[in-house]
Amino acid sequence: MSLQIFILGILCEGHRHPYDIKKMFKRESLAPEVRISDGTLYYHFEALTKQKYIERIMVSREENRPERTLYGITELGREALVEMIYKNFRSFKEVSDLYPCILFIHHVSRERVIGMLEDCIAAVNQKIQRFERIWNDVPPDSSEHPIVLNAKILQEHAMNRAKTDLEWLEKVLNRTKSIPS
């Protein structure tokens, strides 16, 4: 998951401390397999600040506590978020790459994203067709060979995964189409 998209998207909703975003990321189980270290999180906050996508709003300090910096998104950051989302759709390889984009899809052009989702669906359909062609090219007399039998198990998994991805993308497309313009 693109942590920068997540940070910018959350900051579009309101000012936040980095630690609050880390807790939110984990609490909401948006990507439970992703580990975010404090170093990684603060690195991205610094990078986004240097790019002028976010800005420090306020620094506070409570007794016996470290400083807490509240961040907000800039107009440049809002524009960057939109471009990052579009870029992820354009470079689509895996469905999981689109997760942060889907969270913040309401920040981009509905019509443009519908077209991009249709492109993603077409790419997955092509992948399914490619899998089917490959398997159909296996000579029938080799179907009992151990490598072929093992390859069939792998192909079945890849095909099931691609079909699941296709179903999910179609749900996202239908959901996006149902959002009022």
From TrEMBL:
Transmembrane segments: none
Residue span, Transcription regulator PadR N-terminal domain: 7-81
InterPro entries: Tscrpt_reg_PadR_N, WH-like_DNA-bd_sf, WH_DNA-bd_sf
PANTHER family: TRANSCRIPTIONAL REGULATOR YQJI
Protein name per the record: Helix-turn-helix transcriptional regulator
Source organism of this protein record: Cohnella thailandensis
